[in-house]
Amino acid sequence: MNPRKPYDGTRRNLLIAMDVGTTYSGASYCLLDPSVVPEIQTVTRFPAREHVGGDAKIPSIIYYGQDGSVKAVGAEATQEGILEKAEDEDWVPSKWFKLHLRPNDKDEDTVDQAIPPLPPNKSAVTVFSDFLRYLFQCTKDFIIQSTPYGVSVWESVEDNIQFMLSHPNGWEGAQQSQMRRAAILAGLITDLKEDHGKVQFVTEGEASLHYCLNNGCVTPGLGVVIVDAGGGTIDLSSYEPEDSKSDAQKKMSFREMTRPQCYFTGSIFNVKDKARQYLQNKLKLAESRFLEDIDYICDCFDKTTKLTFKSPDEPAFIKFGRARDRDLDVGIKSGQMKLSGTDVAKFFEPSIQSIMNAIILQQKSCANKVDVVFLVGGFAANDYLFKTLTEFLKSTGLNLCRPQNYSNKAVADGAVSLYLDHFVTSRIARWHYGIKVYEEFNAFDPGHAQREQTSEIRLATNKRMVPGRFSTILSKNTSVAATTEFRQGPYTHFREESEIWKRSPMTPFKIYCYRGMQQTPKWFDEDADNYIALCDVEVDVQAPAQLHRNVLTGKIYYEFEYSVILSFGLTELKAQVAWIEGGVEKRGPATSIYDN
């Protein structure tokens, strides 16, 4: 681990990271005091969990009343008294709500069927915002209660808070935009453009890498695969160390080796689902009276049996009832159901096989050698999963490790570390990014000849132009450093003199990405469904453009030359427009991709 330097800011600030998971959530924070070495703190006390020492997670559940108001959140929503009240007052539960934000994927119909619907008149963003508001309040209360002079400390930082929100590897700008909207609705930030930067994003894989680095788990010189095994998704990321530039710069740094992956094969979609199918069939076939308790029995399996299962050679038990509950035909005795270890092992097979295949795929796609696999996330707590993966990976030459406290706080703590430490210096572009342009017609170009009927004469220049060309700014699989900019242009825009260009913005244009299989995408009418519009970018010109006269018609136009710039910053892609004015480059405001 690198020694962290004292905070070099001039005033106290607060950094809060929130990890809203499919099934469990948590938060971490760091008070940034000038000249003081920052320390990452974990929120370990939540309402209805006060008696549990050091528990850094709460269930991702919200109960709504019939009027749409929030009634219970987190651990409060799982108390026995609350459950009875919820039933009496007809409250509506919302769980796994995070997955409603996920990218659309036509191959994930089974996921759609498995995810519970949202409460009436509630959007995924609204529910997410309600949970963020609650998690923020819990963090505020914890800081005030656990910090000396907590109230005055909070008052000194409440207007200077930076938020880090984590999300699965497969999520991109569209999901980040929705999460930022949720943060605005939750009151974490305002909707002013200058406030949008107070929310930054981190993938769960990258956050987990930072957690491992801070806990001394990653050995310098070794390539690593991070497997974040959660309830909803299995996220995989691969990194390799970079050589320090000099002996004076001993900072540990890593770069992404290949595109991270995200699979909807977490424990709720496989282990719990397979267990439910088995138990329901078993109870139904025996006509057991406990069939009506199937939901509760499955919940008990998910909370205890699934986590403690160790071997197919030993029986497993689901404790769900009272001492007198008994049905020997289905293995129920003294309020618990006995299951064969072999049957329980079958519940795990789809998830374990998915993780195995994903690790091998990551390993093969990495140009350099991978030595270690780190297993984190709530599902990683299961010893059978860890043992099975360990045995499998021996034949591949990979070592499997679980860092300390991997299941409770890896992502939230790691998200804080990403902001403080920036261990990852470059990432891999997921897709091709670019804009739609016209090209001057060339009869000898097969692509132009094929599209001659769509070509048109531009009045400003009397040149025949072919529309619909994809001009790539950033290519798929390109290694992108946080500070690197990708520029394309110059492009020329014309506007008639009568439109009075002076001090008015140019018509917005769109940034697109191509998600198909073509190695070098060229035309929007080829594989058209895989060109996705991401955001609008405006050129806020505060000076008159150059005058241009059409030599044939004598008509005068305003001519404006500009370039388009893409940059990653931390983990969020942004677009800008640059132009030359008075010999000096000017830039318009940066627009977050998807953040319209």
Give the helices and strands, then pairings.
Layout: E1 13-20, E2 24-32, E3 41-42, E4 58-59, E5 61-64, E6 70-73, H1 80-88, E7 92-95, H2 109-114, H3 124-146, H4 150-157, E8 161-167, H5 173-185, H6 193-196, E9 199-203, H7 204-214, E10 224-229, E11 234-241, E12 254-256, E13 261-263, H8 271-285, H9 294-308, E14 316-319, E15 332-333, E16 336-339, H10 341-365, E17 372-376, H11 383-394, E18 399-401, H12 406-421, E19 424-428, E20 432-440, H13 446-450, E21 456-458, E22 463-474, E23 479-481, E24 485-496, E25 509-514, E26 531-537, E27 546-549, E28 556-567, E29 574-581, E30 584-587, E31 591-592
Parallel strand pairs: 1-8, 8-9, 10-17, 12-19, 17-18
Antiparallel strand pairs: 1-2, 2-3, 2-4, 5-6, 5-7, 10-11, 11-12, 11-13, 14-16, 15-16, 19-23, 20-22, 20-25, 21-22, 24-28, 25-26, 27-28, 28-29, 29-30, 29-31
Helix pairs in contact: 3-4, 3-5, 7-12, 8-9, 8-10, 10-11
Organism: Dendrothele bispora (strain CBS 962.96)
Protein name: Actin-like ATPase domain-containing protein
Description:
- This is Actin-like ATPase domain-containing protein.
- It comes from Dendrothele bispora (strain CBS 962.96).
- The protein is an alpha+beta fold and 596 residues long.
- The protein has three domains: 13-204, Nucleotidyltransferase, domain 5, CATH 3.30.420; 218-402, Nucleotidyltransferase, domain 5, CATH 3.30.420; 432-592, no CATH class.
- 27% of the residues lie in helices and 29% in strands.
- The protein has 13 helices and 31 strands.
- The strands form six sheets. Strands 10, 11, 12, 13, 17, 18, 19 and 23 form an eight-stranded mixed sheet that branches. Strands 1, 2, 3, 4, 8 and 9 form a six-stranded mixed sheet that branches. Strands 24, 27, 28, 29, 30 and 31 form a six-stranded antiparallel sheet that branches.
- α7 packs across α12 (406-421) and α8 packs antiparallel against α10 (341-365).
- The radius of gyration is 28 Å and the shape is globular.
- Residues 500-504 have low confidence and may be disordered.
